Amino acid sequence: MKIKNIVKLSVLCFAFGNLSAQNPWPKATNTAQPWTRWWWMGSAVDEKGLDKQLTTLSKAGFGGVEIVPIYGAKGFENQYINYLSPEWMKMLQFTTDKAKSLKMGVDMAVGTGWPIGGPQVDENDAATKMIVQTYSIQPNEKFSEKIVIKDEKQKNLKTIKLDIVTAYNEKNEAVVLTDKVTQDGTLNWKPTSGKWTLYAVFIGKTLQKVKRAAPGGDGYTLDHFSPDATKDYLKTFDKAFGNSNYGIRSFFNDSYEVYGADWTADFKEEFKKRRGYDVSQYIKYLVSDEESEIAGRIKSDYRETMSELILNNFTDNFTNWAHSKNSKNTNQAHGSPGNLLDLYAAVDIPESETFGSTKFDIQGLKRNVEDINTKEVPDINMLKFASSSANITGKPLISNESFTWLTEHFKTSWSQVKPESEQIFLSGINHIFYHGTTYTPADVQFPGWLFYASTNFVPENSLWPNIKGLNSYIERTQSVLQSGKSDNEILMYWPVYDQWASPKGKDVAFKIHNIEKWLHPTVFYENLEKLGKSGYSLDMISDKMIGEAKFENQNIQVSKNGGSYKVLIIPQLNYFSESTLKNILDLAQTGASVIFQSEPKDVQGFFEFEKRRNELQSLWTKIPFQQDGNLKSATFGKGKIVLSSDVEKALEYLKIEREKLTDTGLKFVRRKFDGGKYYYIVNHTSKEINQNIPINFTGKQVALMNPENGDFGVAETQNNSVKVQLKSGESLIIKTSETPDNSISKWKYIEKADAPIVLNQSWQLTFKEGGPELPKSKTLEKLQPWTNFTEDLSTQSFSGTGVYTTSFKLNKKADDFVLKFDKLYESAKVIINGQNAGIVWSLPYEINVGKYLKKGKNTIQIEVSNLMANRIRYMDQNKIQWRNYHEINFVNIDYKPFDASNWKVQPSGLDGEIQLIPIHYSK
């Protein structure tokens, strides 16, 4: 039997690894620790409660909190505090002071609920939409109808305004009549011949309010396309904060979920300035569903303008404002109708989001269909939009709102969280925010206050005693992933104009919830998937970034502090900017390597498109392609341009090396530091990897580092390969250095394992903490879950910690012993001979315990913590009220009223065999 080499020692200690050797782990800061979104329900907080919860979070290994006030619990209205009121700011100051004393950080949302908005957003600054009314006019007919708004909801608005009036005849000839309409809506125009259709565009309002708003936060959502609206909105924060930032590290803005906002008051003028023509004459093509080339071109220009407006008028202003407070800003760009890469790049901390659960091949990993949202699966390539922007522009932190609706409430174990976090890390993200934690007053009974859409990272969770296992793992991993720089070798252009050119619809919002429409069907995505599986590392790049790129030190670089890349890939596309092609040729001229998957077919947009199309073709014909086997290549200045439908063949031709370790099924992300590189490697396959794996850079010394327990040691290497032993579900960090460290001892590889010792004697089962009541103690002839004892109903409803205890004699010698669990529901603290041996919380469920064992009699205690589910089931069956909130109250994963009374009892405790396996390390 092959037993994993990675010794799972105690994860309760923050000290990393073997203290007798120089520690190769980067120094961990609070940003390396996981942070959590902290919902202040009704902002009903007080100093005692804040102190208690921050202290609890700190002890559990959290590095910071992100305050988001939302709706409150019923019955506590007299404790609500209005957002940004003097009392609220006093609570904020207490929070940041307390956090500082605990060496924690504090972020806060610039608004309550989402999307941003509130009482300071008056009608003028509210999210804006175009309202289109059409009229028919007969020849020689005096049009008598008044052109006034018909929508009853819009009639009472003071800001409603007629913006564009354009008439079209049967030949599609257009006449702009905006200045022919009087104040009262009378049209002073009469056609001389033919039938005409009149399009009247009004500046209206979406009337959307902030969703899940907290007290003092209710109001209209913001017009993100108006610079005045953004500045007006932030004035409220200027008034509350004064000259201080109150200790806020970063101001946070949630994902763009503004519905129907497709216009702004000065859109017409901005469009003409940015696109070179008046959209009034072509308004029919923008507002209708006509699927024609001209409609696609007008809509492409419209969408590009919307993208520029949200970037310039909201995102840039938000960043500048945060900097004026000596703080950073964090922004979730996804969901917005803009180029996500440019929007993410315009802030200090780009933030992505995961929603739902992923199907992994890890042995023993639970994924019950009834407990997951089968429609939404996190996608590593969606996450890369945020990490790419950060990597290219040199932002050290990329954050992620993590584990939203990972499973049904109260059914998520830490072992399910781990691979999801690993997928986030593999995308290049390095600053996880749990979604999330609710503030609960000290006198509120179990389960405390809870948020309706989260994995419950709350102290009331019966799994809380072992959360330090998960948190320590994330801290060690992030300490590495926040070190040095990203080490991706490829840039791949995102063909956003292919998305914008669709004649269907109006605005195009790039949401995480509809990637099956805008991302998955593209050749771009196909390339991302193929190259990732083949072992290439890449970042996505925008037109704007290509325009800022330079070729220096034999690499393409956009920002001085950002990543440097060996090659730029332009995937197969239809629409391409002639100015971007010119910028690419300039890069090639100075030495860059470029791969085109196909010849660009056409330019985007409407303005002088025939002239620009000729420019595009003229630039393309300047590339002196020659047939070279199955591809075409050209020397262009000092650079090389390759044309090939097979991108991997083109990369091989350019001698861009892939990491062949992915042939084993392993996944990786790579970082570089002065004098070396880190490889973070994960085994999400169903098999054990026990072999030498190739890596492209070995340096003079290779060390292995275990992020689960902090162990490290010098690896065995041979011909640019490293020996690794990884079981299904395990991960490892490989540190390659040009400078050897002789103080580090050798890594302990498993050479063989002896026959296991099965602990099949009787066990004592007692209950330590939890509820609704502690079941009675039992003597077990056979190890089994406490939920098997159906004659004792308290075991069916109990959520908390049960302690399995036994003694055994040990006479056998070995280098170490592995304690292996057959089935564990859900995590456990192991105590051997009175000593804390560590936490078992992730697959495979095993831990090295040799150092705690002695010859002769040994006593072992296994403190197992189960899910909250059984206790919640009991409460719903007995109609004990625990959810009573304003707004959405509480829903299940399908957004239907929550009711656990019909749930099956979730198995809890230990089941199957527990083995003690003697292992021997290679010498």
pLDDT averaged residue by residue: 95
Number-wise, the strands total: 43
Uncertain runs are 1-20
Give the proportion of residues in helices. Answer: 10-25%
Please describe the biggest sheet, giving its number of strands, its sense, and whether it closes into a barrel.
Answer: 8 strands, parallel, barrel
Estimate what percentage of residues fall within beta strands.
25-35%
Categorize the overall geometry: globular
> End-to-end distance, in Å?
19 Å
Rounded Rg: 31 Å
Spatial strand order of the main sheet: 1-2-3-10-11-12-13-14
Derived structural class:
alpha/beta
Number of helices: 20
Structure write-up:
With 923 residues, the chain is of the alpha/beta class. Among the domains are: 39-117 and 328-484, no CATH class; 490-501 and 508-652, Rossmann fold; 660-747, Immunoglobulin-like; 757-867 and 906-921, Jelly Rolls. It has 20 helices and 43 strands. The radius of gyration is 31 Å and the shape is globular. The two termini are 19 Å apart. Mean pLDDT is 95; it is low at 1-20.
